[in-house]
Amino acid sequence: MRHLTKFALLLALIPAASFAQGIRNTRHDLSNTATGPGPKNTNVNENQICKYCHTPHRAQSTQLVWNHTQTATTTFSWGQDLETPPNNLTATTQGTPLPTTLRLASKRCLGCHDGTVALGDVSNAGGGVAGIIPGLANIPGETNGSGQLSNVAYLVGVGGNMGGNHPVSIPYAGQTYGVASQALADNAIGNYYQVTNAGCVSTSGYCTTAPTNTETDGTRINLVPYTPGSTTQFGVECVTCHEPHNKYGPNPYFTRVNVNAASGLCRSCHNK
Ligand code: HEC
Ligand code: HEC
Ligand code: HEC
Ligand code: HEC
Fold first, then answer.
1. From CA 197, how far away is CA 76, in angstroms rounded?
2. Interval between CA 149 and ligand 1 midpoint (Å)
3. Whose CA is nearest to atom 19 of ligand 2?
4. 105 lines ligand 1 (CB under 6 A)
């Protein structure tokens, strides 16, 4: 996810995590009794897992019954190229525009991961009351006094700067989020597996046609519709590569296809 020059450093900093399948005791399990790495709630009365993200009532929206407050950042940029002098990047190398606003699917993740919102900041903190779930502030090396994520190894898009990250909120090759990018996307399709929804087991029902084998698996790729239920416009968001409940454990980093298996995740879209 990060700038290439930081990649080796990060690999050195983050111990190889290996979990069984499922969210329990992963870094996304913030409950009091959770074991394993990452911040855990210090308050013995706060022993839920799901409520940092979902709640059955008084959610932000019925869509995913989403509980957590999304990122406070509204404008995003993609850093600069490596020319001298450097230019601000506004498109991918193939010309697909890089968005200055992100889709909700990715803004949900950044709500915790860009450090603008407390990990416990939700519309239903308990008893139907909005607020910040207590017990997650000032965890050494993990959170600040406001309960926001401060562990730099897990921060993404701080200050709206998405520079150095794989593009998100972009259409998948051959798709379009607007007439302007259609031709470019069509031209690029030869380098990508084509999209299918027949027999696809991903959350969205849209997959690439990368073969299912020990390395690539197009059925696990989760292309996200531009609008819920849309069957014509879909693209790449954080949940395209990641499955936040560790459904595909023991893949590292909640990845849908094991990136350590000869870059199988990447080759599930890019036909290289
Ligand atoms: C409620 C807050 C919250 C939300 C929302 C959230 N995360 Fe996380 N995530 C965390 C925390 C906390 C960690 C662990 C950070 C640490 O160890 O310091 C983490 C860790 C991770 C990791 C590292 C896993 C590992 O084992 O190394 C990935 C990948 C990740 N999150 C992806 C996502 C994606 C993708 C989304 C959106 C679908 C998302 N997160 C949404 C709080 C959140
Ligand atoms: C860190 C945030 C986070 C936590 C914690 C979390 N979820 Fe989710 N959940 C998500 C996101 C993001 C999606 C959308 C995933 C996608 O679009 O691929 C989702 C989707 C879902 C869905 C619908 C789609 C699917 O994948 O089945 C269900 C059901 C669900 N979650 C249940 C749960 C339950 C139950 C828990 C607690 C055991 C839980 N989640 C904990 C973030 C979270
Ligand atoms: C969900 C499918 C998908 C997955 C998985 C995926 N990519 Fe991409 N990738 C894309 C799309 C779509 C683009 C944008 C293409 C365009 O410019 O229109 C892209 C762009 C790129 C680019 C070109 C960026 C630029 O500005 O020129 C590179 C390099 C790249 N991806 C590498 C990777 C690597 C490495 C991985 C694995 C860690 C990966 N991709 C995983 C879909 C994917
Ligand atoms: C094209 C696939 C892809 C997309 C899209 C993607 N990630 Fe990742 N992410 C990965 C891979 C692969 C890793 C593990 C490799 C690494 O960076 O060390 C990773 C690692 C991470 C980590 C662990 C720490 C780190 O920075 O390496 C976090 C946190 C994370 N991603 C969050 C996100 C969030 C939030 C988004 C959306 C803004 C996102 N990812 C979008 C593929 C992706």
1. 31
2. 10
3. 64
4. no
In this prediction, residue 183 carries a pLDDT of 57
b/e map of 116-131 (b: 16 or more CB within 10 Å)? bbbbbbbbbbeeeeee
- Choose among 182, 233, 193: nearest CA to 217: 193
Q: What is the pLDDT of residues 87-116, one digit of tens each?
A: 999 999 888 899 999 999 999 999 999 999
- Say if CB 94 and CB 188 are below 8 A apart: yes
State whether the beta carbon of 38 lies less than 6 angstroms from ligand 1: yes
Nearest C-alpha neighbor of 183 from the set 97, 269, 99, 266: 97
- CA 190/CA 168 separation, integer angstroms: 20
Contacts of 44 (CB under 8 A, 6+ apart): 32
- As a whole-number percent, the residues of the chain with pLDDT over 90 amount to 77
Task: Give the list of residues 6+ apart from residue 120 with CB closer than 8 angstroms, or none.
Answer: 41, 52, 132, 133, 134, 135, 136, 147
Q: Whose CA is nearest to atom 2 of ligand 2?
A: 53
Amino acid (1-letter code) at residue 11: L
What residue owns the CA closest to ligand 1's atom 31?
28
247 alpha carbon, closest ligand: 2
In angstroms, what is the C-alpha Rg of the chain? Answer: 19
Ligand 2 mean position to 243 CA, how many Å?
8
pLDDT tens-place string over residues 239-251: 999 999 999 999 9
Q: Is the pLDDT of residue 18 over 90?
A: no
Does the beta carbon of 236 lie inside 6 Å of ligand 4? yes
Copy the structure tokens of residue 70: 């999304």
